[in-house]
Automatic annotation (TrEMBL):
It comes from Oleomonas cavernae. InterPro entries: Ribbon_hlx_hlx (IPR010985), Uncharacterised_HicB (IPR008651). GO terms for biological process: regulation of DNA-templated transcription. This is Toxin-antitoxin system HicB family antitoxin. Coiled coil: none annotated.
Amino acid sequence: MATLTIRLPDDQHARLKAMAERRGLSLNKLVEEWSTRGIAEFDVETRFMALAARGDKAAGLALLDRLDAHFAPGSSTSKG
């Protein structure tokens, strides 16, 4: 396991510590959860970009047109 040292202004550190305590977490666990979320978002974005690079632009736009038609106001399947 690695150790990471970061520098924060004292007031920001105090606010983060209070946030962690309110959530019933250590400050370490709070930052660990944030980093896990950030990595998950990065992985999703990376996967999306890879799929987009291999994809067919015309087919993707056609699919979006079908979704627009499906959810358009007045459509029998739209909610609204």
